[in-house]
Specification:
About 45% of the residues lie in helices and about 15% in strands. By secondary structure, it is α/β, with parallel strands linked by helices. It has two domains: about 180 residues, Rossmann fold (3-Layer(aba) Sandwich), CATH 3.40.50; about 160 residues, Rossmann fold (3-Layer(aba) Sandwich), CATH 3.40.50.720. Strands 8-7-6-9-10-11 form a six-stranded mixed beta sheet. A five-stranded mixed beta sheet has the order 1-2-4-3-5. The chain starts with 9 loop residues before the first helix and ends with a helix. The structure holds glutamic acid (GLU).
Length: about 425
């Protein structure tokens, strides 16, 4: 397949390899594969801002829209030092399969800026967020491409995006962005949605493998919005969280960690570092400690051929996008004792509630939190059951089953619409 050379790198290669496996399984003819896999549009922008010291720095930004067959594109914006167009494209492609699996009327998109947001002051962060959105104005819109948070961005950044877009339109266009603060047109339950979704699916997987949640143990890698909410929600279901980590530190205690205190510390200081001198642990080693539930909720490619044979859990719940490499997948295939909840299912709670936010904004009719959570669980339940059925019927891994539903949905939509012109 001739994926244009603008996309490269290990994350893009991973998305491509996953797609090829599923395309083989679905018997998609070779000449049709590029039409489904290669992103429709990509935009690269340079974003200059004035620094607090008066100097000027230019940051590189991107946005990739994977397909526009089912509706607008949808996906987060990532602020991280290693962001490049290949990674953003892979994340956009995964968003497509994720939205299709959940039955949302979207194609996938993703954007990002190569910047460590922690290296910016609040004023610089606002300037960069606004400049990025200003550059994106011809490319996005509530019926074209709807942004959301991802790693390194949050509700405040979404509010700046929405305000910048709206100021240029001369009216408030809240639906151009989801994951906004509730007071700026966001929905209740969006911030917690991804972590809550992870916890819901862990409960369903636990039922499948007959694991009693009360007293079960969990390790969570990544203590941002996804990891911390998943940990708190699982803890309230009786799970003992024995390990957590982020970019700054890792803590491990077989007796159980105080998740509320850790969460408060992170809220106060921005990172786990400095929480305590006790229980400090090697972050790499954390992933291979024995536990019932292992939740990678940080970055891509952390479960690799090096550690896939060593992880010791019953449920692997992928809160992050792309945490498991195809090489690791091949190892996990021979470890049927581990139930994998693949990323495009496991972390779909975020985009599902983003969809609810978009729908509420378009209708100007707002739901209460019970309705949001109830609809979230019902949507996840449907996806979980569809994946389980496909695993059973086609003898696939949970990942290949989930991906094949996503790819198949996009394929069928493209086939019925036909080729233009
Ligand atoms: N960035 C999130 C994801 O990777 C959420 C996307 C959205 O809400 O549109 O799923």
């Amino acid at each position: 397949m001739n994926a244009s050379s603008i996309y490269s790198g290990p994350v893009f290669a991973m998305a491509r390899r996953q797609f090829e496996t599923v395309a083989d399984h679905l018997d998609i003819p070779t000449d049709e594969r590029s039409r489904i896999f290669i992103p429709k549009r990509a935009l690269a922008v340079s974003c200059p801002i004035t620094r607090d010291d008066g100097s000027i720095t230019v940051f590189q930004g991107y946005r990739v829209q994977h397909h526009l067959t089912l509706g607008p594109t949808k996906g987060g914006t990532r602020f991280a030092s290693n962001v490049d167009v290949g990674e953003v494209a892979a994340l956009a492609i995964w968003m497509s399969w994720k939205c299709a699996l959940a039955g949302l009327p979207y194609g996938g998109a993703k954007g990002g800026i190569a910047v460590d947001p922690r290296s910016l002051s609040r004023r610089e962060l606002e300037a960069l967020s606004r400049r990025y959105m200003q550059e994106m104005i011809p490319f996005v819109g509530p019926h074209t491409d709807v942004m959301a948070p991802d790693m390194g961005t949050n509700e405040q950044v979404m509010a700046w995006f929405m305000d910048t877009y709206s100021m240029y339109q001369g009216q408030t266009v809240a639906e151009v962005v989801t994951g906004k603060p509730v007071e700026s047109g966001g929905t209740v339950g969006r911030r917690e949605a991804t972590g809550r979704g992870v916890a819901y699916l862990v409960k369903r997987a636990a039922e499948t493998v007959k694991l009693e949640l009360s007293g079960a143990t969990a390790i969570v890698q990544g203590f941002g919005n996804v990891g911390s909410v998943a940990a708190l929600t699982l803890q309230s279901a009786g799970v003992k969280i024995i390990g957590v980590s982020d970019h700054s530190a890792a803590y491990f205690d077989r007796g159980g960690l105080n998740i509320e205190a850790l969460e408060q510390h992170v809220r106060r200081t921005g990172a786990l570092e400095g929480y305590s001198t006790e229980g400090l642990f090697d972050p790499e080693d954390l992933l291979v400690q024995s536990c019932d539930i292992l939740i990678p909720a940080a970055v891509e490619r952390v479960i690799t051929e090096k550690n896939a044979g060593k992880i010791q859990c019953r449920i692997l719940a992928e809160g992050a996008n792309g945490p498991t490499t195809p090489e690791a997948d091949a190892i996990l295939k021979d470890r049927p004792e581990i139930f994998v909840i693949p990323d495009i299912l496991c972390n779909a709670g975020g985009v599902i509630v983003s969809y609810f936010e978009w729908v509420q904004g378009l209708q100007q009719l707002f739901w209460d939190e019970a309705e949001v959570n109830d609809r979230l669980n019902r949507t996840l339940e449907k996806s979980f059951q569809a994946v389980s059925r496909r695993v059973e019927m086609r003898k696939l891994t949970t990942r290949d089953a989930a991906l094949s539903i996503g790819v198949d949905t996009v394929l069928r939509a493209k086939r019925t619409r036909g080729l233009f012109p």
